[in-house]
Amino acid sequence: MPSREEQLICSPLRTILANLPTGGDIPDSDDWQAVVSLLEQYVPATLAEIYPEWTQESLDGFYPLFARKTGEGELELFGLCLLISDQTTTPIHLRLQLSSSADEISWLIFRLGEATEHGMLRGNLASKAKHLCALEERADKIDWVCRVTFGQRRF
Q1: What is the pLDDT at residue 51?
Q2: Rounded distance, CA 79 to CA 63, Å?
Q3: Domain assignment of residue 125, given as a range
Q4: Which of 77, 113, 133, 148 has the fewest beta carbons under 10 Å from its own?
Q5: Are the beta carbons of 24 and 69 closer than 8 angstroms?
Q6: pLDDT at 95
Q7: What does the DSSP 8-state code read for residue 58?
Q8: Exposure pattern of 31-48 as b/e (b: 16+ CB <10 Å)?
Q9: Strand, helix or coil for residue 23
Q10: What is the mean pLDDT of each run of 10 residues along the chain (155 residues)?
């Protein structure tokens, strides 16, 4: 059963993606801001199902290096997210596909936080532009702290 946030994410995201070609960047809009706001709630709730420490953490925004359509009903977002607890940033990579028949996410790959020998890499807001530039083309090279995967991707 999809969560309320998941259901609310699907409708505006479906509209956004329907109007873009595959590979197209997601433009800023009221619908996109609604999706981002709901993802700020959905991501920590999903992480908390696997990582107990996430019951005490929340997100306060995303700073995407990119957000784009990667296929039919598919979104990929890669960049930084802001942790509410200490107002630091950490990398995030989210790929999802919407169900073709219901308001739910049918496939998800989600990774958050770059692992270092001292825990999760955290940056400050003042250096977010520098941190974003350092992420360029590194999504598959990052040693991620948290990983969530579910569902089967449709082709």
Answers
A1: 94
A2: 6
A3: 4-151
A4: 133
A5: yes
A6: 96
A7: -
A8: bbebbbebbbbbbbebbe
A9: coil
A10: 88 95 96 94 93 92 94 95 93 95 94 92 84 79 94 87
